[in-house]
Amino acid sequence: xxxxxxxxxxxxxxxxxxxxxxxxxxxxxxxxxxxxxxxxxxxxxxxxxxxxxxxxxxxxxxxxxxxxxxxxxxxxxxxxxxxxxxxxxxxxxxxxxxxxxxxxxxxxxxxxxxxxxxxxxxxxxxxxxxxxxxxxxxxxxxxxxxxxxxxxxxxxxxxxxxxxxxxxxxxxxxxxxxxxxxxxxxxxxxxxxxxxxxxxxxxxxxxxxxxxxxxxxxxxxxxxxxxxxxxxxxxxxxxxxxxxxxxxxxxxxxxxxxxxxxxxxxxxxxxxxxxxxxxxxxxxxxxxxxxxxxxxxxxxxxxxxxxxxxxxxxxxxxxxxxxxxxxxxxxxxxxxxxxxxxxxxxxxxxxxxxxxxxxxxxxxxxxxxxxxxxxxxxxxxxxxxxxxxxxxxxxxxxxxxxxxxxxxxxxxxxxxxxxxxxxxxxxxxxxxxxxxxxxxxxxxxxxxxxxxxxxxxxxxxxxxxxxxxxxxxxxxxxxxxxxxxxxxxxxxxxxxxxxxxxxxxxxxxxxxxxxxxxxxxxxxxxxxxxxxxxxxxxxxxxxxxxxxxxxxxxxxxxxxxxxxxxxxxxxxxxxxxxxxxxxxxxxxxxxxxxxxxxxxxxxxxxxxxxxxxxxxxxxxxxxxxxxxxxxxxxxxxxxxxxxxxxxxxxxxxxxxxxxxxxxxxxxxxxxxxxxxxxxxxxxxxxxxxxxxxxxxxxxxxxxxxxxxxxxxxxxxxxxxxxxxxxxxxxxxxxxxxxxxxxxxxxxxxxxxxxxxxxxxxxxxxxxxxxxxxxxxxxxxxxxxxxxxxxxxxxxxxxxxxxxxxxxxxxxxxxxxxx
Length: 818
Hints:
The protein is α+β, with helices and mostly antiparallel strands and 818 residues long. The chain folds into 5 domains: 4-261, 7-stranded beta/alpha barrel; 263-359, Substrate Binding Domain Of Dnak, Chain:A, Domain 2 (Up-down Bundle), CATH 1.20.1270.50; 366-459 and 710-733, Golgi alpha-mannosidase II (Immunoglobulin-like, Sandwich), CATH 2.60.40; 466-708, Distorted Sandwich (Beta-galactosidase, Chain A, domain 5); 734-818, no CATH class. It is 24% helix and 32% strand. The protein is built from 14 helices and 44 strands. The strands form 10 sheets. The protein has a 9-stranded antiparallel beta sheet. It has a 6-stranded antiparallel beta sheet with strand order 22-21-27-34-33-30, with no helix packed on it. α4 (96-114) crosses α10 (307-317), α9 packs parallel to α12 (329-359) and α10 runs antiparallel to α12. This is Alpha-mannosidase.
């Protein structure tokens, strides 16, 4: 019988930040790559595998000659590049477009510098993996994937995403890091023990995390085993060689995400996660507005050249330890500054693009133009809030794009000063409609309104315990201030079987959320009601304010219901003071509501939960329902964790773990001082959508967009067209579709020319024929179930073709051509 073949993979997983800051990570990349090249000179059969185009970009900037030597080793086949992405990110929490840009920028960099794209995705240390990654990988030019967490009983399999795309996957049977001789031998032994049914398997070696790579001792240990080891034949190899050698295997198929790894990372560090969500949204909006401006004016702005750098800064900070909240505080503080810079720069690009649009139009006419913008791929029709510079003693009338007066309601301004003699601020709310990826021009005039409501902001209906319209009824408990009724009036279904609550847990787990025998339990305490008041009242919308306290922790909740809303908006202003604690918003949805749908990267993951089975990840929305589809959908603007327990649906809103606290024995002492995440103030928003029947996915995405910002506005001056190219219209849509289940996700400039890239997503799992409306033209197209579809057009939007996420046609990509 032939011996088992062990493919020894020399590697160094490098955390660019973790228990160190990025500057130290940069140094370790330099030292590790130099060491790998030194070992190649010393051992002619040694081979090295690495990931992350960010590292190659650092080397290119610091030591271009070193990059040239690496390039030669790549050509020789001794240096294997896996990953194809900018960094090894968290693979559950980033949005779908973030993963798409990882591949777009990473693969194009590799093609430009090394002549080939990467075919093997690799995230060995990430804390779980989205079930839609096979489609994203496949459409980014990769047909295989390597990971380690969680460790599965099936180390090699075919991983399939909901659309049917699949990749060969390797789940490492042993560690990726071996420091010395004994750990190297242990990794060999563990690999053999855990893969007894396989005649060949991969086995990693080399110093990692803080860098280092294979050492002389590692290599000599393996060479000794090549001669003396009885259990297997060992040889220096690569993941690519192993995958090539098993290409004829009939592999088992696995579907769905790999998750529940370090559950505490889903909720660590609320500020960082909120900033990350904001940065993703602003970058997507910036790209879309740049495209809208180019369509409007016929020219692309130079700001398009800045987008890749901003995305890559975001990518760097979606690294799994950074995104998971397990780095030291100085590294985390730097990440917050970098993400803040991305948000600010993306907002500047977005606003200059909007200015290019309005400057191309003739805005003269009665009153002043108020532009409402919609960067999303579906038409918007809902309440909007706008704050205006408006003389305090002047009347205000609002008209829609067609001259019809619009009723509005005055509300409190952000500036807490009113009734000044000079100048003034005015904040109003009204219903408006804006087409997909487009704008609508409303008009503001200094006339007495005939349809204006509540100009003095008086409380017409002082009842602080009920909010109600034709679609929804919300009631609040008079003793506790808690929401106790949330009824879908169209069906009569109440999503709550009792009062909601705020649950405070003792959470002494480490930063990753591992139990390690430390306490994690519900304290079963009650927050005290300080006050409950109706603070907004009118025919457009009403707001109830609830103030709660417990041991210095304060929570102010503003519940708002518009006249046409089907969901209740909750603005939460939290001052959290509890160390080693977990805070959850809990809604008693009942024991029958155990089926959930949660947003994941460009898709939805569906689960059926057992009783109290721990925390799961989500992105912008969660829907929990019974077998009949009745339940509660919750959208958020920066929360990522939920659980079901004792008939309650719970959204984790704060977790005050110690920064970079590990699980070593006796780590705690009285000499050191400890700092806790999430201590302090934060604001977050939830949208609560009760439903007496199953909601379409498009409705879940609608409330998700509403929670994260569905529109923007700009009050312009009256002017003639200020640019040479203009297309005058009071309502304009750049791109959209005619099917609710096919939605434009982003529009951007093509990487290779001045054309447009349009990314669409099918939401309901249906192969669909649809029409793409683009710059006044209609194109009949088809999209597969749950497909991420990318369309490329010329600058005039006249010719269209399907491309992959790298913006290449499939046949050309297979041939390695650009």
